[in-house]
Amino acid sequence: MRVPTLSVAAAAAALVLVQPGLAAAADDPSTTITYTVTSGALTLSVPASANLGSGAPGTQISAPLGPVTVTDDRALLSASWTVTAAETDFTNGSATVPATDATYAPGSVTTTGTITVTPTNVTLSNSPQVVVTGTAGVGDNTASWNPTIAVNVPPSAVGGNYTGTLTQSVA
Fold it and tell me: I want to staple 141 with a disulfide (CB 3.0 to 4.6 A). Which of 68, 78, 115, 166 is the partner?
């Protein structure tokens, strides 16, 4: 039996109409959607002051410094940063305890977002020492820790209050 050509064409057209998505009309409207992800800065917050307590000559005095937090709001695809710490010598009038008699131990680091952190215990000095690094960051992230500062008080230290300045920075 022969099927007229017109009937086959009509059946094919009907199939296209019944099967949505097989063919799109040339005049279907579309919308282009755009948006902007804003970015911020890389910042570091540290305690304004800390008191380690007291101890006799020849002992070690140590205490937690207080929370230190890196906030990376740069929204980068591949973010990294480094925190350094430098200490001035501790002075009491004319008496001095060198910065190298002190240590910085970051301890455990808590993060948010995507960032891999590596803490490093260091002996402090007058020049910056790397204490925490952040690598493989994506987007915004934070890292927080509460370092322990320890001072080995020399046996020759004289009595009194000693003051030094710990400078931490992030880059």
Answer: 115
